[in-house]
Amino acid sequence: MLQKELLKWYASNQRELPWRNTRNPYIIWLSEVILQQTRVQQGLPYFNNFLEKYPNVISMSEANEDEILKLWQGLGYYSRARNMLKTAQLIANNYQGIFPNNYEGLLKLKGIGPYTAAAIASFAYNESVAVLDGNVYRVISRLFAKDEPINGSAGKKLFEELALQFLNKKDPATHNQAIMELGALVCTPQNPKCSECPLQKSCKALDLGLVRTLPVKLKKLKVKTRYLHYFIFEFKGKIAIFQRPEGDIWQNLFDLPLLEASNHLAETELKQNLLEKNWLQINEEVQFLFQTRHILTHQRLEALFFLVRTNNKPALNIQEHWIEPNEIKLKAIPRLFDKFLDWWKSNDLGNLTLKK
Ligand code: SF4
Q: How far is the CA of 29 from the centre of ligand 1 (A)?
């Protein structure tokens, strides 16, 4: 039977990962939240750091948001980190720190979606639910040679049904992990290793020569370009940062003061804007430092960084904090800010020093 072949393959090919071979729902949940964000190798240090600092859901629930964002820094999609904390608090406060022990119960928790609920229900409680991540969608789409888009609603429904049909009901936990691992190691997006695949004899895509064309995905949403002008305001050896508000990217992370425009501003326009906002005095200079591009899922950020050295503390009116440059490392900051710091570390900015 095909499912048995899959389990046999998994038994001898699975990677040793710290969240495998555990029935602890907290550990499974933590790993899934991180792995939705990044690949296994990149996610491992994050997983270890979180688990070391918060060994259980109660300890995580007692964390403050800044600590969580700091540990999450670099993974992107910070709302996911904030939701993780909220879910931990919900479980600690309303469920005595105990995760519900079935799919439906888990799904009722705000912050836990169908994928994570299925992963916890299956891996921790061996419930017969199919876990569908990107790897599983790909395997199923090829195994059954289905060209419905995997990110469309009809496709999702179809693949859920097929995955459930294919699920080994006697050992759903291992089956789910095995198919995910097969997608990660063998049935890869590019150049799948069909000759090593335990499903090859029944794979319809292989039979029909459709492996390269599957799975099908609907085109991504249009990417919006934003033009950001960042400022290092240096006053008496301190610089201004502020906490980003709700309703935009990177909510609650610390960032540099910035101006956004519909295009990059020329020097005179930039100065004019700063003067109008009272962020600059007429006799002060704006020095260009660094330019970079930063890509998010739906946004392309074209960023310029400038230095303004001033003897008059500007009232930025963004609830700014004036801090020593070395204090930045204690704050949770967006990756774009981090890119600038890398540049800053490798360049001499006179009196303004940033120790590594
Ligand atoms: S035979 Fe190839 S395409 Fe089919 S499931 Fe295996 S690796 Fe994927």
A: 28
